[in-house]
Amino acid sequence: MKRSLITTLVIGVVVAIVVGALHATKAIAGFETAVAQLVSDYAGATRVVGEKWQYVFVLVTAIGVACLSLRNLPRLRSYLLFSFLLIELLVLSWVCSLYRIFFQPVPCIFAVALAAVVAEGWIAFLQRDRSYLVWTLFANRLSKKEFHRVSNGAFDGQAQAYEASVVVCDIANRHGFTSSSDPAGFAETMAKFIRETADGLIDTGAYLQAADGEGVVAIFGFPNASGQHAEDAVRAVLDLTKKFREVRQDNEEIFGDWNMHAGISSGAIIAGALKDSVHPALLASGEPIEFARRFCALNHRYGSKILIDTPTFDSVSETIVARPIDFLSGVNSRERQEIYEPLWLAAEAKPEQLARRDCFWNGVVFYREKRWAEAYSEFQKARGPNEEEDAPLQLYLRRLEPLALNLAEVPMRQA
């Protein structure tokens, strides 16, 4: 807003100086005489609008036209307004002549035309500069649909806050494989993973922030705002996990027993363009980026595939089936945040799957309340046909088995 006001004033002042110089040097005297004879009677006038007032009218007119031009009004509407303004200046000169007052409209007419041309030129320059900025920042990082949206939108590169969901994807136990695999094989596998993961996230509407040896980072809800960025992020990652499992089965010689881990965090991020560098770059920062990386790495501890935070779970709880995993400390030791593992889309979940999820949830609640026997019983009910692949369930069972056995031995000792 402040920058637009300064631009308007600069254009208005420059136009006023140029028109004033043309008027003072008699460069437009012939045109002024022709118009004066057409709409007014200079010979019959008893009073003449002074030069100082003439310059004031020129300045006010130039600033007003520049302001209207820079407000991004439809061009047809702007041209109609300027045409009416030119007619009104001529009518004003004629009305003044009826009261024997001579008002020269030509300087103001020149101010209208010159201010409109300068403002249009400035807008064209900004659009060219903005187009280059948008292309530099988002080319090959957004889908064609999202790129067209940001190109036609109001993105100007200024740093501001966005509500978004950050996704971080990586290969499970990647650092362990770097020491046991040959460099060429690891590079081939990592390149294939990065390419397919990045393409999958971009196709679902994400902005690709990074894709390198440290994994893939994508942001939903930026640069185009979305009210369902969290749901889009979770859906995209669930779909990627499914596809990665299928690709791994079809390409065992490449991926072996590798798995994909992902972390998702939702909240406010700060994003803006760094225009001072030779090549514009995008700066994105915020807790969701840090938490998403942290959740992605924590999958190795719990044996899960995807971990999300509480804000993400609250946004997707109606459409995604998820279960609680653990509490984590936040930025400081007093903050605790619950993390969840999304399992299936709610529309695709079977009744028996929902029942096992509920048993797992009850088991976690009893575990936190230190009701070991009840927790162990609920976790036993949560066993499914593929329980050996349910690493979080096995983790809780391993934690509870010594406690459950101890509780069973106490009555026997008492007896």
Q: How would you characterize the overall build of this protein?
A:
The protein contains 15 helices and 10 strands. The C terminus is likely disordered. The protein starts with a helix and ends with a helix. 60% of the residues lie in helices and 17% in strands. It is of the alpha+beta class and 415 residues long.
- Note the main sheet: 6 strands, mixed
Shape: elongated
Rg, rounded, reads 34 Å
Task: Report the order of strands and helices.
Answer: HHEHHEHHEHHEEHHEEHEHEEHHH
Query: Count of DSSP E strands?
Result: 10
Instruction: Count the DSSP helices.
Output: 15
Helix content: 55-70%
For the record, give the distance between the C-alpha atoms at the N and C termini, rounded to a whole number: 82 Å
Give the class from helix and strand content and strand pairing.
alpha+beta
> What's the rounded overall pLDDT mean?
83
Stretches with pLDDT under 50, minimum 5 residues: 410-415
- Measured by DSSP, the beta-strand proportion falls in 15-25%
Short summary of the structure?
This protein has 415 residues and is of the alpha+beta class. Helix content is 60%, strand content 17%.
Draw up the topology in text.
Elements: H1 2-24, H2 29-39, E1 47-48, H3 51-69, H4 75-98, E2 101-102, H5 106-138, H6 144-152, E3 160-171, H7 174-180, H8 183-203, E4 207-212, E5 215-220, H9 229-250, H10 252-255, E6 260-274, E7 281-285, H11 287-302, E8 306-308, H12 310-316, E9 320-329, E10 336-345, H13 351-368, H14 372-381, H15 391-414
